[in-house]
Write a structure and sequence with these properties.
Elements lengths: L1 H4 L2 H24 L7 H13 L2 H13 L8 H34 L6 H10 L5 H16 L8 H25 L4 H13 L9 H12 L5 H26 L11 H18 L7 H8 L1 H21 L5 H24 L9
Helix pairs in contact: 2-3, 2-4, 2-12, 2-13, 2-14, 2-15, 3-11, 4-10, 4-12, 5-6, 5-7, 8-9, 8-10, 10-12, 11-12, 14-15
C-alpha cells in the first residue's frame, strides 16, 4: 500500500540528495587539509559545490509531501514522526560517540577519555546529525504552516518566499561573506541581526515552502531557471576559489542559505520534476536508494573515516584519485550496510 503512495520524481530527487551529501563529505575530508588554491583544493572545491544541493533538496522534498493538502497531519502521526527522529538520533549519536570519543581515543590514539566531550558529543551528535535537529524543528511547525499554506493563499506563500530570498538568501548572505574581509560588515551584521525582526522568514522554512510550491505549480521560463542554476554553481566554484585566494584562507560560498545554492537546488528540483513526474517505468535501483536514504545518510561518515585512513596509511593524497574512490566506496558501503540493517528487526527502525 505504501509503495502506491510514493511519488517517483521525489524518489529521484531523494536519491540525488543522498548522493550529493556523500559528495560533500567525501571531498571535504581531503580539501580541509589542503593549501588554498592548490590542485587538491580546487578539485575538492568542484565536488563540494556540486553536492551543495543535498540538504536543500531533502528539505524541499519534505515540504512537498508534508504540506500537501492530502497529507494526514494528525497529532498521532506527527508525534510518531518526531519520536522516530529522536530514536534515530539517539542511536546514531551514541554509536558515533562510542567510536570517535571512546574507542578511537583509548585504543588507537592512546589518549584519555574526556567525559565532558563525550557528554557534549552525545547531545550535539556527530557532525552530520545536525540535520536531524533541523527536521525535528520543521516537523514541529508543520501544523502551523498547514493552516495557511493552501492553494487559495498561493500569493502569500510567494510573498513569504520572496521576503526570505531577499533578506536571508541575498542580503544576509552577502553580509556574512563580507565579514571575512572587513570589520564594517561585522558591524552591519550585528545591526542586521539585532535590529531587523525578520527571523521568522529565516532558516530553512523557505526551502520547505518551495518544496510545496514547486510540487504543485509549474514555473514559467524554465530555461531561465536552469541558466540561473548553472550560474549558481559557477558562483559557488569560481567565487570560492577567488575569495579564498584573496583572503589566503578557505572562504567558501557553500552556505545552504545562499542565493547561489538556492538557485542550484531550485533548478535541479524543477528539472527532475519536469523529466520524471509522468514517467511510468520506475527504476527499482532509484526507489531502493530513496527508501534507504536516511540510513545511508546515517552510516556514510564511518565509511569516510575508514577509506581516508587507508589513504593515509598508503600515502595517497591525490584528489583526482582519493575523492572519486572515496565517494564510490562510501556510497556502496553505506547502501549495503543500510540494506543489511533493514533486514534485522532490532535495527530496522534506525535506518
Amino acid at each position: 500500500m505504501e509503495e502506491k503512495k510514493r511519488i517517483y520524481y521525489l524518489d529521484v530527487l531523494r536519491t540525488i540528495a543522498c548522493i550529493a551529501v556523500i559528495m560533500i563529505h567525501s571531498s571535504a575530508t581531503l580539501t580541509i587539509k589542503c593549501e588554498v588554491n592548490s590542485t587538491n583544493f580546487e578539485i575538492g572545491n568542484v565536488w563540494d559545490a556540486l553536492g551543495r544541493i543535498g540538504v536543500p533538496l531533502f528539505v524541499m522534498i519534505s515540504g512537498a509531501l508534508m504540506l500537501d493538502k492530502n497529507y494526514n497531519c494528525s497529532k498521532e502521526k506527527m508525534k510518531k514522526h518526531i519520536a522516530r527522529m529522536i530514536e534515530f538520533f539517539m542511536f546514531w549519536s551514541i554509536l558515533y560517540c562510542i567510536i570517535y570519543e571512546i574507542l578511537i581515543p583509548k585504543f588507537i590514539n592512546h589518549d584519555s577519555i574526556k567525559i565532558n566531550k563525550v557528554i557534549t558529543e552525545l547531545i550535539k551528535g556527530h557532525y552530520h546529525l545536525w540535520f536531524i535537529y533541523l527536521i525535528i524543528g520543521v516537523y514541529l511547525i508543520v501544523p502551523l504552516l498547514r493552516l495557511w499554506v493552501k492553494d487559495e493563499n498561493k500569493k502569500y506563500v510567494k510573498y513569504f518566499i520572496i521576503l526570505s530570498i531577499f533578506f536571508v538568501y541575498i542580503i544576509k548572505y552577502v553580509v556574512t561573506i563580507g565579514k571575512n574581509f572587513s570589520e564594517s560588515f561585522v558591524k552591519i551584521n550585528d545591526f542586521y541581526d539585532n535590529s531587523f525582526q525578520l527571523k521568522y522568514i529565516g532558516g530553512y522554512t523557505a526551502y520547505f515552502l518551495l518544496g510545496w510550491y514547486l510540487n504543485n505549480y509549474d514555473l514559467k521560463h524554465k530555461k531561465c531557471i536552469y541558466i540561473l542554476g548553472i550560474l549558481g554553481l559557477l558562483v559557488s566554484i569560481i567565487g570560492t576559489s577567488i575569495l579564498s585566494s584573496i583572503a589566503n584562507k578557505s572562504v567558501d560560498l557553500f552556505d545552504n542559505l545562499g542565493i547561489n545554492v538556492l538557485a542550484q537546488s531550485v533548478a535541479v528540483f524543477v528539472f527532475i520534476k519536469d523529466k520524471f513526474k509522468e514517467k511510468e517505468n520506475e527504476n527499482k535501483v532509484v526507489k531502493s536508494i530513496s527508501k534507504h536514504s536516511l540510513g545511508i545518510y546515517a552510516m556514510h561518515p564511518a565509511f569516510i573515516t575508514v577509506i581516508y585512513k587507508i589513504f593515509e596509511i598508503s600515502n595517497i593524497n591525490n584528489a583526482l584519485i582519493c575523492i572519486p574512490i572515496a565517494f564510490a566506496v562510501v556510497f556502496l558501503g553505506s547502501y549495503l550496510g543500510t540494506y543489511i540493517f533493514s533486514k534485522i528487526p532490532g535495527l530496522r527502525k534506525v535506518v
